[in-house]
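Tutorial, part two.
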Amino acid sequence: MTRRAFAVCAHPDDIEFLMAGTLLLLQEAGYEIHYMTVANGSCGSLDQDAATISRIRTGESRAAAELVGAIYHPPLVNDVEIFYDLPTLSRMGSVMRDVGPEILLTHAPADYMEDHVNAGRLAVTAAFCRGMPNFPADPPRETVGGSVTVYHAQPHGNRDIFGELVTPQMYVDVASVIDRKEAMLACHKSQKEWLDATQGMDSYLAAMRDLAAETGGMSGKFEYAEGWRKRLHLGFGDAGADPLAEALGQKVLRT
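Running the prediction step on this input gives:
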């Protein structure tokens, strides 16, 4: 049976900033890895029109996925249009049944941007409904069984919407794959100017390393890390299921 890990984030480059290292380590551990951003990047430019920048940014996401052999799933909506509504959820549900993951990696339940929060909510509910034949997936797909364990990434900057530090339940040591994580992020070339101008990131590649270093410092053990919180198992699988920790072994530190 193929073990699958599915990373679902809001925008092109979110996976690279928050979870690409963990995804790569799962691939090394034998998982088939899947990559999806719910939005297409249509608002990620100060000078390109929506159609142009969305085409560029989805192309960059596809290139990042192909670089590491991840299976790419196209986005569903425009930026700032990730709504927790039935049409979008039905489409997300269809993708979730198609993938049938054992591990779902997605955004923190509370983050600075509503697109992040809603992308995570859509991914979680789609996973919850994976085995419900009466839930209307669009397009229709057969339900899937089995356990799925949901892991929430750290919010942007390791802070919640009030600026309070969020402490992970578990840290994943990504030092061995930090260069590959950076190579994936470097595929998103269109974002350098945008992030410099709008979010104060003088270099998006350095900003990613700084974030991983800050998380590593929080662990007290790792040089570079990604942080995770495991969602309650109810509706998803067994209480003791922790396939991420089982797969990655000593690269995981629990708090």
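The first strand starts at residue 4 and ends at 9. In part three we will examine how such features are distributed along the chain.
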